[in-house]
Amino acid sequence: MPFYGGEKLDQVYDRALEEDFGLVASNVAEPDVAMGLMEGASSVDSDLLIQMSAGACRFAGNGDAEDGLRAMGTYIETIAEQYDIGVFLNMDHQTDMEFIEMQVETEIPSSIMIDASHEEFEENIERSKQVVDMVDDADADILVEAELGQIKGVEDEIVAEEAFYTDPEDAVEFVERTGCDLLAISVGTQHGVAKGKDLELRPDLATDISQALSDHGLDTPLVLHGSSGLQPPQVEDMMDRGICKMNKDTRYQYEYTRTLFDHYLEHKDELVPPEGVEDQRDSFYNDVEWSPNKDHFDPRVGGRLVRERIAEVHADLAELSGSAGKSMFPN
Questions:
Q1: How much is the pTM?
Q2: Residue 289, beta-bridge partner list
Q3: Residues 6+ apart with CB under 8 A from 239
Q4: Which of 68, 134, 184, 291 is the most exposed place for a label (fewest CB within 10 A)?
Q5: Domain chopping of the chain, boundaries
Q6: C-alpha dihedral over 127, 181, 203, 199, to 10 degrees?
Q7: What is residue 8's three-state secondary structure?
Q8: Where in the sequence numbering do the catalytic residues fall?
């Protein structure tokens, strides 16, 4: 089956380290974006890493994060069967140990990102190692990602007003003491909307961190959060510096809304009554000559457009990150 756990995902990261490419980890909160991502990745023969935050799980679960994860996990697993690529699920920026325990017990995700980067160094190590031990004790097929340093901006419930760069020697100690499988580093990217030219980007730090880990016998894939504002040359540069996972969320959010906005704006006269016609939504325009056009307000019309656009965007990003043409798990 194409929906895989941590062992298979680890193989993808090993190859990514060897060949200097990365997976674009793409956040979802509902099915249309997930389906678009699978279509886009498949179109360029790239393995796919879908991500969900706790907030996204609550949204999908009508306020209950566990229900949302079960629902979306089942959806992703079922639809992934249609594609000849490997599909994986990472839990992004997790802070609730009880929710993490549920994830480990059910083995729904392929990997879990524990985010204690807002804590002091020792506390970050303690909480990150707790998740690693939890996975080990359960013998679960799940990788653990941790974060050292803080990315400026807002991600789910975590807010950082300033960016704190990751120190290479601290990274070595952190990985050795926690046993994490991946390390998210801070090199100047920002969560949310940002233009690459405005970022105080330190790509040299990624190289230094990767080299320091390697010097200590640690072939640990590095993760870049807050990458939506990076320009294509910056992304390509990062892939050559040990970055094997690059997170994208804000870009998809914008494409989702912009795609629907453009469609509805183009067909405004067929969706909104013209001036002088009473807006009879409650009676659905039974008493006026004008009526809306279902060819444009049926949610499936907008949903298909969203899927198509997300597929285009992800295919382009997979080409940019180098994962296109490198799927390891065809049926």
A1: 0.91
A2: none
A3: 20, 21, 22, 246, 321, 322
A4: 291
A5: 6-258+296-321
A6: -50
A7: helix
A8: 92
